[in-house]
Amino acid sequence: MCRIGSIKSRTPIHPSMALRLMLPQQEGHDNSGFAMVMQDLTGVFAPYKDKPLLSLVCTDKGKQIASDYMDRTGFVQVFQWKPDMDLRPGLMIAAMPSYVFRNYDYPESMRKASREALEELLLDTRLALRNLLEKDENGFVYSFWPDVLTLKEIGDPTDIAVCFRLWDDDGSLMAKNIVSQCRQNTNYAIVRYAAHPFFLQGYTLCANGENTFYTRNTEFQKSLHKSYIGFESDSQNFLYTLHYVLHELKWPIKYYKHVITPLPFVEAEKRADKRELSLIRESLAHLEINGPNTIIGLLPEGQMITCCDSKKLRPAVVGGDDEMVAVTSEVCGLNSILPNRDASRDIYPHEREMVVIDNDLAVRRWNQ
Amino acid sequence: MESVKTQDVSVNDFPWKIVYHPEICTMCGSCVAACTFNAIEPAMARRSLTVSRKAFPDPVQEHMARPVIRQKSGVLNACVGCGMCEKMCPNAAIFSARNPDSRFPLLARGKGPIKRGGRTNLNAQRTLDSIIVGRISQMTDPSLDSERHTFDIRSPFGRVLQARELPFRVEGNNLVLTEKTPPVHWIYPVIFSDMSIGALSTRAWEALVMATAYLNEKHDMPVRMCSGEGGMPIKLLESEQLKYVILQIASGHFGWNRIIKAMPGMKTDPAGVLIKIGQGAKPGDGGLLPSAKVAPHIQAIRGVPKADLLSPPNHQGLYSIEESVQKMHLSLNAAFGFRVPVAIKCAASATSVSVYNNLLRDPYKICGGFFMDGIQGGTGAANEVSLDHTGHPIVSKLRDCYLAAVAQGLQGQIPLWAGGGMGMTGNAAADVFKMLCLGANGVIMGKILIQLLGCIGNEHGRCNSCSTGKCPTGICTQDPRLVKRLDVDRGAENIVKYMLAFDSELRKLLAPVGNSSLPVGRSDVLVSTDKAVADKLGIQYAC
Predict the structure, then answer these.
(1) Relative orientation angle of helices A214-221 and A236-243, to the nearest 10 degrees
(2) Inter-axis angle of helices B394-408 and B352-360, to 10 degrees?
(3) Which residues, in sequence order, are bridge partners of residue A178?
(4) From residue B372, how far is each of A3, B193, B394, B442, B532 by CA, in Å?
(5) Which among B465, B469, B449 has a CA at the least distance from the CA of B190?
(6) pLDDT tens digits for A202-247?
(7) Exposed, middle or buried: residue A105 (CB in 10 Å: 0-12, 13-18, 19+)?
(8) Cβ contacts of residue B367 below 8 Å, gap of 6+?
(9) Taking CA atoms, what residue in A is nearest to B173?
(10) Which architecture, in CATH terms, is B132-541?
(11) A165 φ, ψ to 5°?
(12) Chain CA centroid to CA B183, Å
């Protein structure tokens, strides 16, 4: 089981906070990687919050391919941050030659475009880069979005943090939201794209568990949207459904839970909105999930969400104080970063529950 | 030898030979009375016997005429192996044995094409038996507990819209339905398949209705039953239990004058309407109810005289799928105020995917289900040549249709219901589970139901006499004396008990794969020990 965790803070935090959330949960775990998505950035990226940020790992050749493509399509680089990497011998990390974090300005022709058009452009650009870099594994593009940074690497999470100087807390890399996970895919081959969190058009998601409806989810999602690709991990299904329900169908957030874990018929039948629920279940039957899962998501406007499978087969806990709220798999992680919180107010979401943490750290929860 | 010609027919030409033990027979006559086929008769035979007539043993060999039971040698009286003689005999003095050297297929055609009931006797191969539920949840994802957890065993019946097409308006945090949508009912994933009053005795049909109602009302299993083409009693049409019945309309439209007349008096809507285009047992052939079975009450329900009732091979007013959608689907939808799903049933065929594609792309979005019936489906009457030599195995065709929908992102829009041989080996739950994993939303089952009522027919040539009106079990006959052989309550009880066991067994398959709702299209669950089957169906090969 993967351990997952996310932190939402009133003031920007360093990635080391996410590491301290995750590392106590690593017992009996293969510690095979570290991955995080940071949103609402400060530090070196603070002046460029509205400029899409490309998170890319690649070979030198891949870097050239990406640069050429961005030039060709009219994107103008406005900032680049190159991590000062500590490559001392003995660190367990399968580092790639180049880590590219670049902010771009939109192409001239798109500067007055609508938000929807810009979102499409960013998506198309990421997909095109992915496609170009896929050959010979010249690179992996994780996100291309304003105010969002993704870092993923294979190796021991502590060593990865050493390598990227994440323990230094030097203020260069900070954000109000961090979603993280410390493991590579264990079910299938280790592929960088298979490591969560996954990102798509402002939606970030990681999950611990096993989606036993992977095949039927995947077969359905492939035709729903051009960006629903890869499927290197069964957890990508959750992200694509989140994106489809909120971004494509534009349904309120509570319906995400109704789509992935519909109420049993006997319960749905008693509800005032039974007709709507039945239609949703009919139309999106192939997006239902089964198997043990906990999901953590981060939405474009910054809300953090969590929910579980319909049988509550995987753990999750939400806890916090006035400054910070965290969601994670095991409470030892919370104890590590929030030892003085009122633990009696911790929330262990149950199978019908959905929890949303707003930007003011208000925690809303309801039964589906 | 001069008195017997080689062309003369004798009992050793027949598929079944009577094995008789005169020494233990008491000549009670039960076997003769039980034999509806008039295949045996009492006769006198000259026998050599050792007898002792004195007060002390004094054996003497004598020749004498003794009454015996004898198998008749006329083709029309050929024993069908139904076993009623054996069942009735108090002394186990008689039974019928299969004759591997039968010449019957040659002899019987002297009276014209062989007509019979049952299912194919040649194509009994069992694709489903080479498929195993091979992906078991352990460790990374836990199995569920079939006794403790709750399971949502329901399938959609009706036209499903794509999510983008749903007429929702966002009001605050809620979605609100703003328009009417096609009717969709979530029902049990088994429909009792369409066997008409006429093909079945009224009482056998009644047993099915009783079982259906009992499962719904006492066990919360929303099983639906299809009427078959032949109408229904007015009393049932005007009862609350109509909601469990899917009305069938086929090319003969038998019974629909009564249904239409009963509509003003209906207290509830039927569960659906099924337009029968074809059936797996005799694809391309119409319905057939031999006049032998057109008893007065059948004449009344169907509104016909006593005659062979032949439904045409196709619906006479329709010349294309588009037209069928426009005319039949729309008019039948309109008949019930667009509140009742209207589905279509076709025989599985090499062309099934084309038909399904046409329905999926129909602009009216009006087809509420695509029912496919494979070659192993049963029938009350058909030409044997159709039964044995026409049709299509259902498993791969179901898969083809499902994958065709997947390729277009339209899976689930028109629910797939498949059947034909489900439960042939006795375990319907395993068959159904595998069919669901391959893409079926549910299955249709018919033959197994009458076997639960007591039908002794099988796909190895046993009985298969549903067309004759002489059904020895009282199920497929309209002869009131034979119908009395059927205990309706026990028959219904057998079906109920089987379905309860079925439900438990389905959970026993859902739980180990970690699913609490039906795994429609979850082909990753299945493996096949047959490489060709695995390749064809796109599932893992295992050995």
Answers:
(1) 40
(2) 30
(3) A7, A38
(4) 46, 11, 7, 11, 23
(5) B449
(6) 999 999 888 999 999 999 999 999 999 999 988 899 999 999 999 9
(7) middle
(8) B159, B325, B329, B342, B343, B344, B359, B414
(9) A252
(10) Alpha-Beta Barrel (3.20)
(11) 55, 40
(12) 26
Which of A229, A185, A207 is CA-nearest to residue A291? A207
Residues A262, A278: Cα–Cα separation, whole Å: 9
**Could you tell me the fold of the domain covering A4-49+147-367?**
Glutamine Phosphoribosylpyrophosphate, subunit 1, domain 1 (3.60.20)
ipTM of the complex: 0.94
- pTM for this entry: 0.95
Chain B interface disruption, residue of A212, A247, A278, most B CBs within 10 A: A212
Which residues in B387-512 belong to E strands, given as ranges?
A: 416-419, 442-445
* pLDDT tens digits for range B228-267: 998 899 999 999 999 999 999 998 889 899 999 999 999 9
Nearest-by-CA chain A residue for B153 = A265
Distance CA A235, CA B171 (A): 31
Dist CA A282 CA B416 (whole Å): 13
Q: Where are the alpha helices (DSSP H) in B336-474?
A: 352-360, 384-389, 394-408, 428-437, 447-453
Cis peptide before A197 (omega within 30 of 0): yes
Phi and psi torsions of A327, nearest 5° = -120, 130
Total Cβ atoms within 10 A of residue B395: 27
Of residues A252, A264, A313, nearest to B173 (C-beta): A252
> In whole angstroms, what is the distance from residue A147 CA to residue A41 CA?
6
How far apart (Å, rounded) are the C-alpha atoms in residues B215 and B500? 8
Fold of B11-99: Alpha-Beta Plaits (3.30.70)
Can you give the pLDDT at residue B425? 94
Sequence ranges of the domains in chain B: 11-99, 132-541
What is the rounded distance in angstroms from the CA atom of residue B222 to the CA atom of residue B225?
A: 10
Bridge partner residues of A56 (DSSP): A100, A141
User: In this predicted structure, what is the pLDDT of residue A188?
Assistant: 66
In three-state secondary structure terms, A135 is helix
Residue type, B411: Q
Report the SS3 class of residue B108.
helix
**Diameter of chain A by CA atoms?**
64
**CA of B164, closest CA in chain A: separation in Å?**
7
CB-based contact B409 A284, cutoff 8 Å: no
